[in-house]
Backbone:
C-alpha cells in the first residue's frame, strides 16, 4: 500500500474504535432497532459531527460505525465502484479507526457501505447493506415542512406523491423519475431508497440482507429488515419499469447490469461498462469478454473502430 | 330537491375568542342535506372566523360542531382523531377559497389538481383519473384541451372554476365557500354564480357560503344569517330576510345595496 | 482505449500532500505558530470556538492553521474533535451579572449606573489600512488603565433598570439551576422547538447567516423593532458541582459577549404594555453575532407572542435547519462528488424522450405528405 501522509487519526490514540464513543454508538443502535421494528419509518437520531463533511456520507459512516465489529470485513462503494475517491476515503477511515479487514469483493464483505448503487450480486442473510442518504424524506420536494411531512406519513396521506407521478406521465408519457424513485415499504410507509437508480429498486424487495439507511445532516435513520416487501410506486396502467440498455458492457459483455457511459473521444464515440466494478472484474476473471476488452482476439469487430487504437 | 329532516351539520353555541377580542359568539344553527346557507356581514363581522371554526380549520374556544358522517353517524368534529378529520376534509367536505391560488396547486397541471383527491383516496389507475379530470373540466366549462396546462396560465374565473372542480371530484356532501366570487369581474361573477347554482342543484350539495355581497347571497342561498360584531343578529329564509329585514343593521345593509 | 479508472487511492494521497504543501506556502517565509494565531488572530479564534461549540483557544488556533485560515473548515475540525469528547460534568449556568467586564454599553440610556465602558472596539476607528503593521511597525502604545475599577456588580439594564418599573417582560427565570437544558448535539431536534434549543442553535449558527437574518428583521421581514439595551463583554467563571462534593468549584474563566435587546412592546388598553426581549450570547468578543442572535431570537418568539409569521427569521424551522455552516457547506459542496450513476439514468431518459418526439414528428410529417398527395387540389 501507498505511504500515506500524516493523518491525525493515526497520530492520536485519543480516538475510539470506529471513531465514535460507545455512548454514541448505543444511541445509534437504539435508533437502528427502532428503524428495523418499523420498516421504512424515519427515526430521528442525534447525528454527530464526523470528520468528513455533511453530504459526503456521514449518515452511512455513523451507521457503519455503530454496527461494525473487529471481525467484520468492510466493502465501500460509490457509484458502484470501490475506487472512487469518496469510497476510498471512507474505507481508509474504517481501516484506520477500526482496524478492520476491507475487501472489494461483494461476496466477502459482511458490511457494505454504499452511495448510489446496490451491488449486482445477490446479497445474503449474513450481510448488511448500509446506504448513505442525502435527503431521507421522499415527500420533501412536494412539501418542504418537516412538521407537515411527518403528519403525512403518520396519516398515510400519500396522494401528493402520486400527483407527481401523474404529472410525469401527463407531461412525458411515462414516469420521469430515474433515481431516488419512491417505494412503498411493507404496505405502510413511503420511503426514499436514497439516490440509487430505479434499476436497483427491485433488488430491495425481499432482500435477504439487512438494509440500513443513514442520513447524517438530516439526522434520520431508517431500515428494511431482511425479506421486507418493497414496492415501487406506480399506476395500474403505467407499471414501474427499470432502465435497460441496447448495449452490453464493453469489458465483460454483461447485459443484465447497470451500465455507465464512457466517453472515448470528442467525436461522439462512447462505450458502456458495468457500474459495479467488482461484478465486472469477476465476470472478466471467469472469461467473459465484451467487445472493447483489450485481449479481444483481433478481427472481432465492434461498432467502434477507434476504441481499439 | 330532496331534503332529509336529519341535519347534516349542527353547530351549537359556538364561540371563538382571540384573547379578549370576540371572533364570533354563541352561534347555533343546523344545516340539512342539499341546503344552502348564506352568512353575510361586513368585513370584521366574524363570518370568516365562524367559517374557519365550522370547517375544522380552527378549534373554537367553546361550543361544538357536529357532522353526520357517512359511516359513523353524528360526530363532533373536534373530538375526532386528526386522521379522521383530515379524511373527512378531503372526501366528504370541500372548501372553496376566495383566492383560487390558496385552493390550487399552481405548479401542477389542471388534471393533477383535479386528480389529487382521487389519488389521495387510493385511485391508482392513471387513465381513469384522467378521464374523471376531463369530465370535471367539461362540467365547469373549461376546454378539455387545457387538461395538461398549469393553472397559472388560466384566467381568474377559470382558476376559480378549476378550484371548484378539484373540490367536487370526490362527490362531497358539504361545501364551504369563502367569498367565491370576490375579486372577479362582474360578468365573470355572473357566469360563475350560474355554474355554482347548477352544480349545487344537480349534485344536491349542502353549502355554507360566506359573502359580503347580498346579491350573491340572494342568488345562491335558501337561508341567510346576518352577522355583526361576532354575533348572529338575524336569520331566516333568504327572501324574507332581504325583503323584510327586522334588525336595524340588516335594514341598513339592504338599503345600502339598493342605493348603489 | 478504455481502462477502468484505478489508482484513486494514490491520487487522493498525492492530493493530500499537495494540500499540505500549499498550507505551508513558501518555505522561505517563517512558519506561523499556533501561539501567534491564538494571540494575534484572536477574533478568528473566538469565532471558531463559538461556532465549533468548544472553548479551547489552542485547539482553535491549531484548527485555523490546519484549515489554512478557512474558518468554516476550522469550525468543522473543532466540531469533529468535540464530538468525540466524553461529558464528565455539566457546568452551572454562568453568571453574566457577575462578569469581569471589559466593555459594557447601552444604546437605550445616555448615562446609566455603572457607566458606558467602551473597552476594545473597532467601533470608532477609521477604516484606513495601517501600513505600519505591514512594515512590521513599532510596538503599539499600551492603553491607559482607568483610575478606578468598574463596579463589581454592574447593574443590568434590562433586569435591574427597566424591570424595576415592570417595563419589560419577565424572562422565565428557572429557580432550579439544575433544570435540564436541551442539547441539539445529543438529542434529535423536534419542532416546534423551545427557546433553549433555538438559542443553542443560534449560538452555534453561522455568523454570516445569523447576521443576514437579524438584518432582515430590521428591513421589514419581521416586526420586532429592537434597541440594544445592553452589550457586555468580559470574562465569567465556569463552575461545576461534582455530586460527591455538594458544592460548586471554579474550573476556569471564559470570555463571553452578551447582548440583550429591548423590543417593541405588547399590551392593550386593559393590559399594561411591556417591552419584549431578545437575547444573544456568544464566546469571545463578537458583538455582531451577539446582536444578530438577539434579533433573531426575538423574531423566533413570534409564536409565543402571538405574532403573525411574515419573514424567514421568524420561522424557526427555516432558521434552525439552515444556520449550521458545517451542515450547509458539506451539503452544498457534496454535489461535486460523482453523480454519474444518477446522471446516466437522466441521460438515458432524455435520449429516449428525444427519440420518441422525433418519431412522432416523423410520423406526423409522413401523414402530412400523404394527405398532400391524396388531396392535391384541396390547398387552393
Residues:
Amino acid at each position: 500500500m501507498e505511504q500515506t501522509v500524516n493523518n491525525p487519526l493515526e497520530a492520536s490514540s485519543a480516538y475510539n474504535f470506529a471513531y465514535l464513543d460507545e455512548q454514541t454508538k448505543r444511541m445509534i443502535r437504539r435508533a437502528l432497532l427502532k428503524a428495523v421494528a418499523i420498516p421504512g419509518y424515519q427515526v430521528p437520531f442525534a447525528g454527530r459531527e464526523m470528520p468528513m463533511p455533511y453530504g459526503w456520507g456521514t449518515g452511512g459512516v455513523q451507521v457503519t460505525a455503530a454496527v461494525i465489529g473487529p471481525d467484520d470485513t468492510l466493502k465501500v462503494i460509490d457509484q458502484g465502484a470501490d475506487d472512487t475517491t469518496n469510497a476510498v476515503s471512507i474505507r481508509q477511515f474504517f481501516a484506520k479507526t477500526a482496524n478492520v479487514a476491507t475487501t472489494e469483493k461483494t461476496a466477502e464483505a459482511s458490511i457494505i457501505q454504499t452511495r448510489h448503487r446496490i451491488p449486482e450480486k445477490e446479497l445474503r442473510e449474513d450481510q448488511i447493506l448500509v446506504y448513505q442518504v442525502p435527503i431521507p424524506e421522499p415527500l420533501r420536494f412536494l412539501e418542504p415542512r418537516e412538521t407537515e411531512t411527518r403528519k403525512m406519513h403518520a396519516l398515510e396521506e400519500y396522494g401528493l406523491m402520486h400527483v407527481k407521478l401523474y404529472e410525469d406521465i401527463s407531461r412525458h408519457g411515462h414516469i420521469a423519475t430515474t433515481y431516488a424513485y419512491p417505494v412503498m415499504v411493507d404496505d405502510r410507509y413511503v420511503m426514499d431508497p436514497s439516490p440509487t437508480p430505479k434499476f436497483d429498486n427491485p433488488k430491495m424487495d425481499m432482500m435477504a440482507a439487512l438494509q440500513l439507511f443513514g442520513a447524517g445532516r438530516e439526522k434520520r435513520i431508517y431500515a428494511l429488515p431482511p425479506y421486507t416487501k418493497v414496492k415501487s410506486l406506480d399506476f395500474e396502467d403505467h407499471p414501474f419499469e427499470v432502465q435497460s440498455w441496447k448495449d452490453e458492457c464493453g469489458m465483460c459483455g454483461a447485459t443484465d447490469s447497470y451500465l455507465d457511459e464512457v466517453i472515448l473521444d470528442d467525436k461522439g464515440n462512447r462505450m458502456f461498462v458495468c457500474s459495479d466494478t467488482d461484478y465486472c472484474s469477476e465476470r472478466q476473471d471467469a472469461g467473459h469478454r465484451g467487445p472493447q476488452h483489450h485481449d479481444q482476439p483481433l478481427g472481432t469487430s465492434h461498432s467502434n473502430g477507434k476504441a481499439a487504437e | 330537491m330532496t331534503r332529509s329532516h336529519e341535519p347534516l351539520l349542527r353547530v351549537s353555541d359556538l364561540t371563538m375568542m382571540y384573547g379578549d377580542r370576540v371572533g364570533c359568539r354563541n352561534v347555533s344553527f343546523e344545516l340539512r342535506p342539499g341546503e344552502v346557507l348564506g352568512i353575510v356581514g361586513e368585513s370584521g363581522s366574524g363570518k370568516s372566523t365562524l367559517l374557519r371554526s365550522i370547517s375544522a380549520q380552527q378549534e373554537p374556544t367553546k361550543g361544538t360542531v357536529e357532522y353526520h358522517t357517512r359511516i359513523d353517524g353524528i360526530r363532533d368534529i373536534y373530538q375526532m382523531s386528526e386522521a379522521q378529520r383530515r379524511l373527512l376534509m378531503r372526501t366528504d367536505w370541500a372548501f372553496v377559497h376566495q383566492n383560487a391560488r390558496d385552493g390550487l396547486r399552481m405548479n401542477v397541471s389542471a388534471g393533477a389538481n383535479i386528480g389529487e383527491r382521487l389519488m389521495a383516496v387510493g385511485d391508482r389507475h392513471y387513465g381513469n383519473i384522467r378521464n374523471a379530470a376531463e369530465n370535471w373540466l367539461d362540467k365547469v366549462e373549461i376546454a378539455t384541451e387545457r387538461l395538461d396546462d398549469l393553472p397559472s396560465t388560466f384566467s381568474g374565473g377559470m382558476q376559480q372554476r378549476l378550484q371548484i372542480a378539484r373540490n367536487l371530484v370526490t362527490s362531497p356532501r358539504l361545501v364551504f365557500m369563502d367569498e367565491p366570487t370576490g375579486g372577479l369581474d362582474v360578468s365573470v361573477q355572473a357566469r360563475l354564480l350560474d355554474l355554482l347554482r347548477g352544480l349545487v342543484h344537480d349534485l344536491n350539495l349542502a353549502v355554507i357560503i360566506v359573502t359580503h355581497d347580498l346579491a350573491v347571497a340572494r342568488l345562491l342561498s335558501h337561508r341567510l344569517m346576518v352577522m355583526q360584531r361576532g354575533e348572529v343578529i338575524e336569520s331566516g329564509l333568504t327572501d324574507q330576510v332581504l325583503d323584510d329585514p327586522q334588525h336595524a343593521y340588516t335594514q341598513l345593509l339592504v338599503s345600502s345595496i339598493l342605493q348603489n | 482505449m478504455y481502462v477502468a479508472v484505478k489508482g484513486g487511492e494514490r491520487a487522493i494521497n498525492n492530493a493530500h500532500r499537495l494540500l499540505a504543501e500549499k498550507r505551508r506556502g513558501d518555505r522561505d517565509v517563517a512558519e506561523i505558530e499556533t501561539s501567534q494565531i491564538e494571540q494575534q488572530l484572536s477574533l478568528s479564534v473566538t469565532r471558531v470556538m463559538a461556532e465549533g461549540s468548544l472553548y479551547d483557544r489552542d485547539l482553535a488556533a491549531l484548527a485555523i492553521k490546519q484549515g489554512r485560515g478557512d474558518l468554516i473548515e476550522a469550525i468543522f475540525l473543532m466540531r469533529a474533535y468535540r464530538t468525540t469528547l466524553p461529558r464528565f460534568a455539566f457546568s452551572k449556568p454562568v453568571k453574566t451579572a457577575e462578569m469581569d467586564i471589559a466593555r459594557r454599553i447601552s444604546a437605550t440610556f445616555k448615562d446609566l449606573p455603572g457607566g458606558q465602558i467602551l473597552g476594545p472596539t473597532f467601533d470608532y476607528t477609521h477604516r484606513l489600512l495601517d501600513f505600519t503593521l505591514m512594515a512590521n511597525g513599532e510596538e503599539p502604545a499600551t492603553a491607559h488603565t482607568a483610575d478606578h475599577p468598574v463596579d463589581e456588580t454592574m447593574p443590568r439594564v434590562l433586569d435591574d433598570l427597566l424591570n424595576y418599573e415592570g417595563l419589560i417582560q419577565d424572562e422565565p427565570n428557572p429557580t432550579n439551576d439544575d433544570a435540564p437544558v436541551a442539547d441539539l448535539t445529543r438529542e434529535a431536534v423536534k419542532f416546534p422547538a423551545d427557546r433553549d434549543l433555538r438559542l443553542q442553535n443560534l449560538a452555534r449558527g453561522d455568523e454570516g447567516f445569523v447576521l443576514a437574518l437579524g438584518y432582515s428583521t430590521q428591513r421589514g421581514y419581521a416586526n420586532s423593532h429592537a434597541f440594544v439595551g445592553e452589550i457586555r463583554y468580559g470574562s465569567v467563571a465556569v463552575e461545576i458541582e461534582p455530586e460527591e462534593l455538594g458544592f460548586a468549584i471554579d474550573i476556569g474563566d471564559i470570555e463571553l459577549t452578551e447582548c440583550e435587546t429591548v423590543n417593541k412592546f405588547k399590551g392593550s388598553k386593559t393590559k399594561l404594555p411591556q417591552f419584549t426581549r431578545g437575547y444573544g450570547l456568544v464566546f469571545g468578543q463578537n458583538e455582531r453575532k451577539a446582536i444578530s442572535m438577539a434579533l433573531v431570537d426575538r423574531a423566533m418568539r413570534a409564536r409565543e407572542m402571538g405574532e403573525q409569521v411574515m419573514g424567514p427569521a421568524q420561522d424557526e424551522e427555516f432558521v434552525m435547519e439552515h444556520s449550521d455552516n458545517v451542515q450547509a457547506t458539506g451539503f452544498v459542496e457534496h454535489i461535486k462528488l460523482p453523480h454519474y450513476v444518477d446522471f446516466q439514468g437522466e441521460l438515458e431518459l432524455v435520449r429516449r424522450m428525444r427519440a420518441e418526439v422525433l418519431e412522432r414528428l416523423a410520423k406526423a410529417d409522413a401523414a402530412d405528405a400523404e394527405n398532400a398527395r391524396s388531396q392535391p387540389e384541396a390547398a387552393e
